[in-house]
Amino acid sequence: MRKLISIIVMAGFLMVIFPLAAMAGAQEVVSLGADLTPQQEREILDFFGVDKNDVKIIKVTNQEMRQYLSGLVPEKQLGTTAYSSAHITLVSKGHGISVKTYNIAWVTKEMYANVMVTAGIEDADVVVTAPFQVSGASALTGITKAFEQASGKKLDEDAKKTANEELVVTIDLGEEIGQEQAADFMRDVKEEVVKKKVKNPDDIIEVIKRIADEHNIELTDAQIQRIMELMQKISRLDLNLNKISKQLENINKSVDDIKKAVKDNQGILEKIANSLQNFFNWIKDKIRGQA
């Protein structure tokens, strides 16, 4: 009996200790915009659910953002301040990338996930926010810097610059055709270029045009040229299609679930509308019959 009690106590002890050990081993870093007020910093840390004494905190300046966005974004959008903040938590290998956004106007979680893969980020849960509505274009600088701190891995500078350019190109395209469609299209083009190792400009243009047709997207010559130049840079990076697919698996699953839900709801709404129409037609027939 004593032996049995000892085993039960030990099992309970391990059940408590193992989760605590896992939590203690979780590598997480918060990047804060350097121009946040002390009050805004407290609010954002509360939003992330972390204590400043228990998590690594770094600051990201406007100058650091300019390093990657200058020449890609109009000067007035770059501004002189930095408010976007991010919370990065490293997760188990193979988990992939998960992104949540709040108060981010232009960039969807799919866009962030797509470009994070280009930058070399993997297996991370990411939350991006700001104390008020911001475009979100500059947040990638904080995300990459926080990931480097959490992982101890220095990301390739060319990859980071290309990822920022990819984000801006996707944002601009999203203003023309919609954010979700732009993210899906850019992801598919990138995957095709990486999968088939397409490097020749003319061949890349063929890929862009074909996938644009598949997505029912009309692109201008200027847009095609801009995407082609971006894809040339992506083709020079050490990207692996299997890794891209694995990292984006959770993001793509959630998008597919949303699309299915919308489609299912449309079907239900259509049935309701048809039933109402049949009811009204029946009323009309009854009225005519009594006339």
UniProtKB/TrEMBL annotation:
<protein>
    <recommendedName>
        <fullName>DUF1002 domain-containing protein</fullName>
    </recommendedName>
</protein>
<dbReference type="Pfam" id="PF06207">
    <property type="entry name" value="DUF1002"/>
</dbReference>
<keyword id="KW-0175">Coiled coil</keyword>
<keyword id="KW-0732">Signal</keyword>
<feature type="coiled-coil region">
    <location>
        <begin position="227"/>
        <end position="261"/>
    </location>
</feature>
<dbReference type="InterPro" id="IPR009343">
    <property type="entry name" value="DUF1002"/>
</dbReference>
<feature type="signal peptide">
    <location>
        <begin position="1"/>
        <end position="24"/>
    </location>
</feature>
